[in-house]
From TrEMBL:
<feature type="domain" description="GGDEF">
    <location>
        <begin position="614"/>
        <end position="819"/>
    </location>
</feature>
<dbReference type="InterPro" id="IPR000160">
    <property type="entry name" value="GGDEF_dom"/>
</dbReference>
<dbReference type="InterPro" id="IPR013407">
    <property type="entry name" value="CRISPR-assoc_prot_Cmr2"/>
</dbReference>
<keyword id="KW-0051">Antiviral defense</keyword>
<dbReference type="Pfam" id="PF22335">
    <property type="entry name" value="Cas10-Cmr2_palm2"/>
</dbReference>
<dbReference type="GO" id="GO:0000166">
    <property type="term" value="F:nucleotide binding"/>
</dbReference>
<dbReference type="InterPro" id="IPR054767">
    <property type="entry name" value="Cas10-Cmr2_palm2"/>
</dbReference>
<dbReference type="InterPro" id="IPR024615">
    <property type="entry name" value="CRISPR-assoc_Cmr2_N"/>
</dbReference>
<dbReference type="Pfam" id="PF12469">
    <property type="entry name" value="Cmr2_N"/>
</dbReference>
<dbReference type="GO" id="GO:0051607">
    <property type="term" value="P:defense response to virus"/>
</dbReference>
<keyword id="KW-0175">Coiled coil</keyword>
<protein>
    <submittedName>
        <fullName>Type III-B CRISPR-associated protein Cas10/Cmr2</fullName>
    </submittedName>
</protein>
<feature type="coiled-coil region">
    <location>
        <begin position="580"/>
        <end position="611"/>
    </location>
</feature>
<dbReference type="InterPro" id="IPR043128">
    <property type="entry name" value="Rev_trsase/Diguanyl_cyclase"/>
</dbReference>
<dbReference type="InterPro" id="IPR038242">
    <property type="entry name" value="Cmr2_N"/>
</dbReference>
<keyword id="KW-0547">Nucleotide-binding</keyword>
């Protein structure tokens, strides 16, 4: 609270306003409260987020009621109160101070609780009154970062001050970056037969990293976590449920959890959506960094151990129910338990590194320049391509501003009497780059402990391997694994052979999340692959089916058959036939009912002249150049973030600075994380559900979903728009948004019930990744009985291909598995530039939609696309730019002729008029 959130409205009196807010927080003795605040942290946070500006008396800028996108250059016009007093009243009345902390044991606990409540609820309450107030700039001269993020970074830096000598209360400032990462990720998640397996693997990793993050925030505060953002993160909120329940409202009538987080109880799917990355960046004191990392590692391993124990207890209970006689092979004996423990203990791979900030700016710059991947680059490389060179340019410019303009808070004199920058925050990008490089080295070391012991090797020899991982030995014998199928036919397939990790993935939600945390997917089932494929057909024919007698008879017969399989998949005739075959020997009456259901279904689909498409798609999407974005290498130009008066000043006194790229700065990290969180928390699941699909996970820039094959590309297109914050998305969905006209921002319409379910109460501006960002997609389409693991792997391969030649990111690639075993593949840039139109547009997608429409209307045959590809493939090298339609005119004419020829060959002359 060293700066009030309303600071840009009233810079002159901002300190008095801050003091008033501090008093309202419960600190009557302002001077005593400020004793523990180190003002230098404020200056360092400012120098990290902003350029080294001249002193405020030289360069001022009025509050222009706009916010420049932190990751781009578009502007959000802030619809905030007209007067400073109105804004101050909203912010002051939103301060979360009316709570009862009597259940907490001592004053230290109460102070920690008050701090945490201010961190979590102040912004929330302000947003409920006016969401635009969350975008108030910290410095009107460079309005690309908010006062809220500035205060958060100041708080994190304050947490890097430690008491060096307890007796004399001597303080030491020792900031360091901690990067912490867990794995494995992709190969673990991809080990899947069922849709639920995909979710389970990704959520387990999210759950574990969340416990690691909590271990850090419990010790150093939530602001210490720079990436990912924790504010508004449902899983992080849930992990504090016990804490929130201890805090009561002023009248004691309810807990804070009940009052402010009831929407999570009502919509537990928010908590159960995997959306945390597998690594985090924290700002911690260096002397405590190792201890903090070890606590984090301990928290993760202890939580995994709890999950493992509950899963074993669950299996023991359930297997005992099967065999009251306790047949020997059903027991979890010592050998099974030992093998289980060995595999669980060997699962998590943890790497971390802590790097102490070099407080001497000149030395930090030199270390940055000496990083091998930068030092090896050519001398003629531009500053924009070399972040160290770019930072050096800014450093030199800042030292050479007119002497009378220098802000004394940012400078000291060197041995030659020349001004040099004193704030280590200026080198935020250097500190991060060095830490990231050190962590990459740590990961590449790839040290590992011996798997088990030498004495156990002979015991494991000859045991079959897990059929999905191919690494771990199967748990139990064949009979033991078959009993899993008998007890849990909905979880385990007959003759499946699984190790501990893949068994745990199948049962931990029921054995641990549901039993210990009361967390279960409410109103949500993990559909089978056929269910997902068929559901689209059902929804698109829903109105016709409601009144259709054949459909009513079909449902009646399915119910009479006591069929537990979900109804959607039974809209496939082949699925009913499969069930009939299974039932004919032991369940003859059920088989008879299903045969009648099948007859009704055949008649129904003949009448409708349509049936479900027996193909499903796995959609994998991944943000392009996210490593560059996280390092700030893709940041905008300095000139794009300056106010008009700032541009004018630097044009006159330091023109070189305008062409430099913005070095990585803390608010860039925070807002990038917030943009990814907004996409995954608010948008991804709704868009996937709009196309009748299931979101498996959304880890910020990383998406995995299963969809009806015919909807996958449309869904991917809208997800791309949502990722970037494309305002045209408002035209694609009903009533979700109020457009801003600026890429990178979307305004949630509070009249839309979708947002109500997420606890949104006002028109709420979301920051998304912006116009400089893009995302690529891989789509694998296969028959409903194709192995799911193969589809996931192919979707990942297709997504990686979309990032390489000839597509080079910002693209999609589709792989189609034919029943013959052949794989067809095609792709395109999302948008292609047309010289004749003078703009880019979704031409490839529009063409695909048209072809699909003509095929559905039977205007063209199914062979048309294949024939067109055969005729035109030879001309592709004539188009040198894969993001453009422009090529030699004579080649274009030939392609047009071939297109006409293919149409003549495959046009249906019997189609209706107007085709």
């Amino acid at each position: 609270m060293h700066d009030p959130p309303s600071k840009p409205f009233n810079l002159k009196e901002h300190q008095e306003i801050a003091d008033d807010l501090i008093r309202q927080a419960g600190f009557d003795d302002i001077e005593n409260a400020k004793k523990f605040f180190e003002k230098e942290c404020d200056f360092i946070a400012a120098s990290a987020d902003r350029l080294i500006f001249p002193k405020p008396t030289v360069l001022k800028e009025k509050f222009q009621r706009e916010f420049i996108h932190t990751l781009g250059s578009t502007k959000l016009q802030l619809q905030v109160p007209d007067s400073a007093s109105q804004a101050e009243d909203i912010i002051k009345s939103s301060q979360p101070v009316s709570y009862n902390y009597d259940t907490l044991s001592n004053e230290e606990e109460k102070d920690k609780a008050k701090f945490f409540i201010h961190w979590r609820l102040w912004r929330k309450f302000v947003a409920e009154k006016n969401g635009y107030l969350l975008f108030l700039p910290a410095d009107t001269r460079i309005p690309n970062h908010t006062i809220w993020t500035h205060c958060a970074i100041t708080s994190a830096l304050q947490g890097c001050i430690v008491i060096e000598q307890q007796k004399d209360h001597q303080l030491k400032f020792e900031p360091s970056f901690l990067i912490f990462q867990i794995g494995p990720v992709q190969e673990f998640i991809a080990q899947a037969r069922k849709t639920k397996d995909l979710w389970s693997g990704s959520y387990l990793l999210s759950w574990l990293i969340a416990h690691g993050i909590k271990a850090v925030s419990d010790q150093r505060g939530p602001d210490a976590i720079i990436y990912p953002t924790l504010f508004g993160q449902p899983l992080f909120d849930y992990l504090h449920k016990d804490f929130y329940e201890k805090i009561k409202t002023a009248d004691g009538s309810s807990s804070l959890w009940t009052k402010e987080f009831a929407h999570l109880d009502q919509n537990k799917n928010l908590i159960l959506t995997p959306n945390l990355p597998n690594r985090f960046l924290a700002l911690v004191p260096y002397s405590e960094a190792a201890n903090i990392a070890q606590r984090c590692e301990k928290a993760i391993k202890e939580e995994l151990d709890k999950i493992s124990q509950k899963c074993v207890e669950f299996l023991k209970e359930e297997l005992h129910k099967i065999s009251k006689k306790c047949v020997e092979f059903l027991k979890i004996d010592e050998n099974i338990q030992n093998l289980w423990n060995l595999q669980i203990d060997s699962f998590i791979q943890i790497s971390w590194v802590a790097h102490r900030w070099e407080m001497d700016v000149e030395k930090a710059l030199t270390f940055f320049e000496q990083l091998p991947y930068l030092a090896d680059q050519k001398d003629n490389q531009s500053s924009a391509q070399n972040p160290a060179k770019n930072l050096r340019t800014l450093y030199n410019v800042a030292r050479n501003l007119p002497p009378d303009d220098l802000d004394p808070r940012n400078y000291i004199m060197d041995a030659q009497g020349k001004p040099t920058i004193k704030s280590s925050g200026f080198c935020w990008s250097a500190h991060y780059a060095i830490t990231d490089w050190l962590h990459a080295g740590r990961r590449n070391t790839r040290d590992f402990s011996f798997y088990g012991s030498l004495n156990q090797l002979h015991q494991r020899r000859g045991i079959p391997k897990d059929m999905y991982s191919g690494k771990e030995e199967c748990i139990g014998g064949e009979a033991w694994q078959n009993e899993l199928h008998q007890r849990f036919p909905y979880l385990f397939k007959e003759n499946e052979r699984l190790g501990a990790l893949n068994i745990l993935k199948r049962i931990w939600d029921e054995a641990y999340l549901e039993k210990c945390h009361k967390l279960s997917h409410e109103g949500f089932d993990f559909d089978s692959v056929p269910d997902v494929a068929a559901y689209c057909w059902y929804r698109e024919n829903e109105e016709k089916l409601k009144t259709n007698d054949k459909h009513k008879n079909f449902l009646k017969k399915v119910n009479e058959a006591k069929e537990k399989k979900q109804i959607a998949s039974l809209y496939f005739q082949t699925e009913i036939k499969r069930r009939i075959t299974e039932y004919e020997t032991e369940k003859k009456s059920e088989a008879t009912e299903l045969k009648e259901a099948l007859n009704n279904l055949i008649d129904l689909q003949k009448e409708l002249q349509s049936e479900p498409v027996p193909y499903v798609a796995i959609l994998a999407m991944d943000g392009d150049s996210m490593g560059k974005k996280l390092s700030g290498a893709d940041a905008p130009k300095v000139s794009e973030h300056l106010s008009e008066k700032s541009k004018e000043y630097f044009s006159n006194h330091a023109r070189d600075i305008l062409g430099c790229s913005r070095p990585l700065f803390p608010s860039y990290h925070i807002e990038l994380s917030q943009a990814l969180a907004n996409f995954s928390l608010y948008l991804a699941a709704l868009i996937v559900e709009k196309f009748y699909g299931q979101l498996i996970y959304a880890g910020g820039d990383d998406i995995l979903a299963m969809l009806p094959a015919e909807k996958a590309l449309d869904c991917a297109c809208l997800l791309r728009k949502a990722f970037r914050g494309d305002p045209s998305l408002a035209n694609d969905v009903d009533n979700w948004f109020k457009g801003t006209g600026q890429t990178g921002f979307l305004i949630l319409n509070n009249q839309c019930k979708e947002w109500e379910n997420l606890g949104i109460k006002t028109d709420y501006p979301l920051i998304l990744m912006g116009e400089r960002a893009d995302i690529s997609a891989g789509i694998a389409i296969g028959h409903i009985h194709s192995p799911l693991q193969n589809l996931v792997e192919e979707a990942r391969r297709a997504e990686k291909k979309a990032k390489t030649e000839p597509y080079n990111k910002g693209s999609f690639v589709v792989s189609l598995f034919k029943r013959s075993g052949e794989i067809l593949q095609w792709g395109s840039k999302w948008e292609l530039f047309s010289q004749s139109q003078g703009q880019s547009s979704y031409i490839a997608l529009e063409l695909f939609k048209s072809l699909n429409e003509y095929f559905n209307k039977k205007y063209i045959s199914a062979r048309f696309p294949y024939r067109l590809a055969e005729l035109t493939q030879a001309y592709f090298p004539s188009f040198p730019h894969k993001d453009s339609l422009d090529g030699p005119e004579e080649v274009k004419k030939v392609i047009e002729k071939d297109f006409d020829f293919a149409i003549e060959q495959h046009f249906n002359n019997n189609a209706s008029e107007g085709s």
